[in-house]
Amino acid sequence: MKEVKVMAILQVFDHLDELPTEAKHLMAEAIKASEQAYAPYSKFRVGAALSLDNGQIVVGNNQENAAYPSGLCAERVAIFHAGANYPKAKVRAIAVTASSDTTIVDKPVPPCGACRQSIAEYEQKQDAPIAIYFMGETGKIVKASSLSDLLPLVFDSSYL
Ligand code: THU
Fold first, then answer.
1. Computed from CA positions of residues 145, 43, 60, 121, in that sequence, does the dihedral angle turn out positive or negative?
2. Strands 131-135 and 91-100, sheet pairing
3. CA 50 / ligand 1 centre spacing (Å)
4. Which of these, 29, 33, 74, 155, could form a disulfide with 46 (CB 3.0-4.6 Å)?
């Protein structure tokens, strides 16, 4: 038996002003997108913004449903939109943020497991890393340079 260490190095920024200009702009788009979320049930508004290598920015927000599991997270709304409309473009980075009508979200909000799996598919498809920046309504911003840092031991097409 031997042990295998699985680790990731993330970057933590104290303030939006510390981000590179492009990432700051992307996060501003994610904040705007979160304000348009359809979240009547959770009151938790998530916004995601993707930058593509063709210069396009694609946004998404969570879309909830009275039949709860029929809703979709912001990140998947955004990345599926990118996949549907710009299938040849590579996704360079994704910014994610969230706010709530009932509480102050002061912790960085990472993509959920299902969204990580979905983003991983595109990282594999384009054979290039997708950087993920995530934050709450206030507080620190976390950056993962690649989705794979957030989802080690991913299940992908190599197993099929
Ligand atoms: N949500 C997202 O949009 N992204 C995530 O990564 C986590 C959760 C949404 C789903 C639901 O509409 C609300 O946040 C509460 O879970």
1. positive
2. parallel
3. 17
4. 74
Residue 87 Cα to ligand 1 midpoint, Å, equals 25
Query: Average pLDDT of 110-136?
Result: 98
CATH number reported for the structural domain that contains residue 126 in this entry: 3.40.140.10
In a domain, 5, yes or no: no
Q: Is the CB of 115 under 6 A from ligand 1?
A: yes
Please give the helix or strand (H or E) that residue 80 lies within, else none.
helix 74-85
Q: What is the mean pLDDT of residues 99-115?
A: 97
State which residues form the domain around 128.
22-151
Q: Catalytic residues, which ones?
A: 75
Predicted pLDDT of residue 66: 98
* pLDDT grade for 52, boundaries at 50, 70 and 90: very high
- Can you give the pLDDT at residue 115? 98
Q: What angle do CA 29, 112, 158 make, to 5 degrees?
A: 105
Question: Would you say the CB of residue 150 lies under 6 angstroms from ligand 1?
Answer: no
If one counts the domains in the chain, the total is: 1
Residue 118 Cα to ligand 1 midpoint, Å, equals 14
